[in-house]
Amino acid sequence: MSSSQIRHILDLSPKERTRLVDSFDCVICDCDGVLWTVFDPIPGVGEALKTLQTHGKTLRYITNNSVRTFDHYAAQFRTLGITLTPSDIIHPALAIVRHLKSIHFEGLIFCLATQPFKNVLINAGFELTEGPDQPLEESFKKIIATVHDRAPVRAVVIDVDFNINYPKLLRAELYLKNDPKCLLIAGATDKVLHARKDFNLIGPGHFLDVLEQSTGRKATVLGKPGKELANLVGDIFGIEDRGRVLFVGDMLEQDMVFASRCGFHKMLVLSGGASKDDMLQERDVERVPDYYADRLEDLTKLFE
Amino acid sequence: MSSSQIRHILDLSPKERTRLVDSFDCVICDCDGVLWTVFDPIPGVGEALKTLQTHGKTLRYITNNSVRTFDHYAAQFRTLGITLTPSDIIHPALAIVRHLKSIHFEGLIFCLATQPFKNVLINAGFELTEGPDQPLEESFKKIIATVHDRAPVRAVVIDVDFNINYPKLLRAELYLKNDPKCLLIAGATDKVLHARKDFNLIGPGHFLDVLEQSTGRKATVLGKPGKELANLVGDIFGIEDRGRVLFVGDMLEQDMVFASRCGFHKMLVLSGGASKDDMLQERDVERVPDYYADRLEDLTKLFE
């Protein structure tokens, strides 16, 4: 589909609305930008989710944000009137644990991520090493001597790390270069973090780029739009028919590409990081949604 | 010239040797990788420099390394038997001071660099703001609130910063996005730092890339191979005829491209970051040297 043919769901005819509503049994929503933003609530979200449930649609969530703990997510969903259970939501830390267990991974992990992310790995039984967090003396020679510690690291895991710094990147680079078998695994690879309207900031994907360029490696990506996550998701959520899933997201790269890779129907909402102009200018078919809406709330009008 | 035609200077005939030696009055050397490496001295360098002086060649130095102070450089050159004066050497911090003075810059500078670099700017009378150096609480909202300080910053300067971190990059991004007139000025833009043979590490240029990508700006580059430095260098060193300069460096990008942009003769030495294979595989004419040698010492054999 070319981007000029994308229909706003409220421009659909009554017949098309019915056809769309009947085309999916399960709605998978991204969270940031769809359910809420960093700074603002998005209107009508709680009601929209409840309407979908009332009409027999299964709800699931996939976010690239592992910074919140499950308890935080559960509390946030409670404000929307939704009871969240652990099996309803995937974020990169959970997907990485699942992946590591599936490959029977053993050994030390060097982890560039936030503490909530690290806790998910620790609670799953993995052993982590991390840092340095404090500034080091300004000597290239001494910094190399510090970070080149030859610890028996068997995987470098990189996600959002609000305090990522040059010594940590150098340390990751050295583990990866010293041991061709050391894995490189990424969670969120967003190049842009959307904070509020017209306010996008440097995302964690840039730092993965630095590591990939300096080591010549390609990461296994277990956040959206990672192919490895797309392979896992049906299994995690017990999805039998990917053609009966509607994926709702606010980002062209993370959400639409991911949904394309999964074989889901894909709907873009304009309540987050992507504008209507971004969507209309997009030429990459993987990044182009099947439908769009201003916000999740619009979807409920199809049931009226 | 295609890379397969590049001659090793010791393969030149006696007549060609004489012609090469007579073609330049001034030798400009890169430092790291040509005069010394991070870990090892390079043999024969002191003698080579003295031979060049004895034969009436003027010596000058251009390095991308502003991490050493002038006193450190002077001490390092003394071990080679060379007396260095401040006007003999350019590094990015000095070139940036010169540039800022030439444009009559006034105002606050946000500086991502090492302390020796910052001291050059401070000693030239500029006012800097810097940091945060310490890790911040892991909340995107709080980090934005901290770094989005709306200080009246009129230039972001980025060079090697061994403790560069995400909050500093975010802070730079916000100054640049909030004020279209805020300048973006870069020193060293090396993507690779060469430590020793077959041991290359992440260079500072990656972080400039992140800023350029996230802000849509292009930096004024006052380290090698910056066009802006190439414009300034003749003036700084009082060079009357760029065609009478031999530039000696160890990096294809920083040194050969820079020398191409300056209109210098260019010689690659294999004592640093680039290997003979790198050179032979190179197809970009700006990155291909006119001659090559194993090390600076080889040049003295042309005078025998």
Automatic annotation (TrEMBL), chains A, B:
Keywords: Hydrolase, Magnesium, Metal-binding. Pfam families: Hydrolase_6, Hydrolase_like. Its cofactor is Mg(2+). The keyword Metal-binding applies. GO terms for cellular component: cytoplasm. The active site is at D30 (nucleophile), D32 (proton donor). The keyword Hydrolase applies. Substrate binds at K224. Belongs to the HAD-like hydrolase superfamily. NCBIfam families: HAD-SF-IIA (TIGR01460). This is AAEL012292-PA. It comes from Aedes aegypti (Yellowfever mosquito).
